[in-house]
Every structure is written in structure tokens, then in C-alpha cells.
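Researcher: Next entry in the queue.
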Amino acid sequence: MSPTQATTEQSKQASLGKLMRSLANPLQTGLTVCFALAAGTVTLLIVSDDPSGSLTAFFLGPFQNIYTFGNMLNSAVPLIVTGLGIVIAFRTSLFNLGGEGQVYSGALVATVVCLMIPGASAFPVILLSLVAAAALGSLIAGISGFFYVRWRTNELLSSFLISSALILLVDYFITGPLDDPGNNLLSTETIPSGFWLTRLLPPSHLNTGVILAALAFALVYVLLFRTRLGYEMRICGGNREFARYGGIRVGFVLTASMIASGGLHGLAGAVAILGTYHASIQGFSFGLGWNGIAVALIGRNHPVGVVAAALLYAYLEAGAKAAVLHSNVSLEIAALVQAVIFYLITAQGLISWLPREGLIKHRARAPLRGRRRS
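Model: Structure for this entry, 374 residues:
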């Protein structure tokens, strides 16, 4: 074989190897999702008195009418936004565990803004409430980022503790000074209907918040993969020492990533209020922050994966509700299916079963590499 032929052959092998690596992650994820759904199917067959009806309700229920389909999409909207916020933090090897408090606080601020100026034009008030919620979320998460950069305070602990304190503070305002005595729920007054986001598929709750989620997706994607700051974030997430020697302002990048992450969480809270709940209800956002982490992990810390993972999560939730309404399946069964899916995808549970030679080659690597001093 001539040198030219050898070079061509090596180039072909390199291209094929690149293609196989690009296909590996989606194929692995697809296999684990299929395996988990199969496990859920077996569970339904075992515990249900009407297996056929339960399976039909669980897997096809979300698509049975506009109401269930629209609500499924609507429940994915805040998960997409919070998942995108987690991706930005994860890309710099930071952990934002304060999502719950940031969503909850952003929701309250958006509610207060709408209640303070009820007679104003809709668009300025909606815009102001979104900006205020995002700004508060950015401030909350930015504190943790600043503490880490300045004093090496563990951002995992600081973000979680600040969030826990803020949840109690928001509960105080909802059940105290801002409580609506005419409401049977522990909530604030309902915001004026003129500030509600427009519904897209009535009678479902799907609203123009889905457009905001799409804009957030586009902005995060462009930020991470088309801007200098996003490049620096990814470099800092891979090796902070290398980034520092390369002239990157590591402290600034880390703080900026936490600020952006918190802003998206606050925005998710505002979208939930303006589009779905129309009032701050005590505990309404429970799980949004933690589920955003799960969605980011399932989506392999990529904006496109986050959208797919959020839709999958919303689909399982909608399927569980449909099964409860139309069969004797309980919500615990759906929780079991979700737990299996989350475990298999995030832990790559099937990889150890795949051959080491062939289409997929497992490379044992942590999703987030060790941290370096800036």
C-alpha cells in the first residue's frame, strides 16, 4: 500500500471513528429509554387488573385529546428553562442546587409586579415581571458564584442553603402579608387576567410561555457554542488550570455561569405564574429545581438533549395522570418508571452490557471533571 493510500485509509478510519462516537451517545440513550419503558410495561402487566387498558391509558393517554396533549407540552416548558439553567452551570463544572428557591422567588416577584400595577398596559408589565424574576434569580445564584470565586465556599452547599432559607421566606410572604383571604388555597391574590400569557391550545393550559422557552433554548445554544464566553465556559469546565494559563478570566466566567443559571430559574418561575397558575401558591414549584437537574443529566448537558428530556418527563407525568383517571394504576407506578429511566440514563446502566468492540465503545469518564484552582 502506497503512502497516499495509507493516508486515505487512515482518514477514512478517523472519519468513521468520529461518526461512531457521534452516534454512540444518542444510541446509548435510546437503548436505555427503551429498556426502561419495557420495564415499566412489565410492571403495569404485573400490578394492573386491566393490563391492556392500563397500558393504553399510560402510553397513549397524553395524546387522546387537545387538553391532555396541550397540558403535557405546558408542563415541559418550565422544565426546559430550568434544565437549560442547570446545563450552563454544569458546563463550567459548577453545581446550582438552589433552583427550587430561585424558581419560587422569581415566581413571587413576578406576582408582586403584576399586582402592584394592575391598570398598566399588558406588555410592559409582563416584560417587567419576567426581567424582575430573572434578575432576582441571577442575584441569588450569583451570590453562590461570588462566594466560590472569592473564598472557595462550596457552591453546592451555599446554593442549597440559600435556597432553603428563601423558600421559607417566600412561604412567609405568601401565607402572611400577601395572603388572599378569599382563596381556599394558601396563595396570593390572582394577577389581573390582562397579564396572563395567551393560551395556544384551549382548553389546555399551553400558552405563549412555550415561545419564551424556545427563545431561552436558542439563546443558551448560541451562548455555549457560538460565543467567546460560551467557549470559555466550556474550557473552564474541562480544565480550569489550562483556562487560566490560556488567559481566560476564570473567576469572571464561573460567576457569570451561576448568574445565567439563576436567571433562567427565576424566569421559569415567572413563566409558570403568568402562564399557568396566575398566583403564587404555597409549594406550587416543588420539584421544578430538582427535576431540572434530572432533565439536564438525561439530556447529557446539551440544550437539545434538555428539550428532549423535558418532553419525555412531561410525557411520563401526563401518562401517569391518564392511567390514574382511566384505570386502577397509581401514581407510584409512574414514579417507578421515571426512577428507572433516570437511573439508567444518568448512570449509563446499560453500557456495561454492551460489547467493548463494535459500534459503541465505553469510555469511563466522569460527566464533570475535577475542579482546578483559578
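Model: Residues 15-24, 349-374 have pLDDT under 50 and may be disordered.
Researcher: Noted, moving on.
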